[in-house]
């Protein structure tokens, strides 16, 4: 090597080091993106897939250098830190309304009013770059955008005015109120849809400035592949008609007809009146009949417990009548379980060719029974499902979300 070429290489190395140093200084000196996540459901264990989504989104946004504040409901007004995020809890307001559906709607409304006040306080310390809403509660963000001109992004986990049509008679009485509140999303600066199917429905229903598809994610730090050891069917979902709990009345006896098969359902909620109360009563009679072979859990479970439940099943089912994505489907897939679901909403996009999305109840029941009798097929399909689920890594989802924040913020 000549002296001239040696000096040239030193200059190149010096230039490279200087550019790297400048990038590092720029990253350190650049203010963190300040994000407000609004979700009624967040605290663990949560009844809601939206709550799980927000827990993971917050965790991974922090990992990618964002300042994250979560505004959620809790037992009392408080704030604390969790995984680097700041949690602002809005205390429950005990109402005198006895009807469960009416009480829930009233508490949602009071919650949003309190969120406005809490975000105003925090915004006075340092202005939020983004308000990001999840679920049906959009009124607070709408008001804050109008008054303070903070950029607002909404993630559609469902089109509420369509989902409500699949609910019980008691819940449908608020259809006009739900549609009226959700109408405020027409004013958001950006909309995230968790599936292509949901985006198409959203485009038919609302006029949005900007929209993008960012799927739900799975936490690969928690969920992983596990071999099949038990002949059990698992279902996880709210005790609601849109999740298909009414189908269980016919499904359970069919599964019990398979030798040594068991069934576990995590269905938070114990309605005692109305349409859902009748369904719950019917399932209770089956519990009395089948004993330990049929296990119904009516309380929300922590993710670590759900992890063990996925591991202890051979087949996962999702009998939803409305499902924009299906987070539990993804968690079952990463565990290495074949999924049998109805062909609705975003489910086919999640499952792909590594599960079974069926059009009718008879085919659904037949496929589950067939899989219970064929462990080898379950193992093959489960490994395929595991590989597909890895594409939904939360690290990738968080990066796409931050990129969209920056685009909307410009």
Report on the architecture of this protein.
By secondary structure, this protein is an alpha/beta fold. It folds into two domains: 204 residues, Glycogen Phosphorylase B (Rossmann fold, 3-Layer(aba) Sandwich); 161 residues, Glycogen Phosphorylase B (Rossmann fold), CATH 3.40.50.2000. The chain contains 16 helices and 14 strands. The strands form two sheets. The chain has an eight-stranded mixed sheet with strand order 3-4-2-1-5-6-7-8, with helices on both faces. It has a six-stranded parallel sheet with strand order 11-10-9-12-13-14, with helices on both faces. Helix 4 links the parallel strand 5 and strand 6.
Euclidean distance between termini CA atoms: 49 Å
Using the coordinates shown, work out and report the CATH topology of the largest domain.
Answer: Rossmann fold
Order of helices and strands: HEHEEEHEHEHHHEHEEHEHEHEHEHEHHH
The count of β-strands is: 14
| Reported CATH architecture of the largest domain | 3-Layer(aba) Sandwich
Please indicate the percent range of residues in DSSP E strands (runs of 2 or more): 15-25%
Q: Which structural class do the helices and strands define?
A: alpha/beta
What is the count of DSSP helices, taking H or I runs of 4+ residues?
Answer: 16
Estimate the mean pLDDT confidence: 89
**Spatial order of strands in the largest sheet:** 3-4-2-1-5-6-7-8
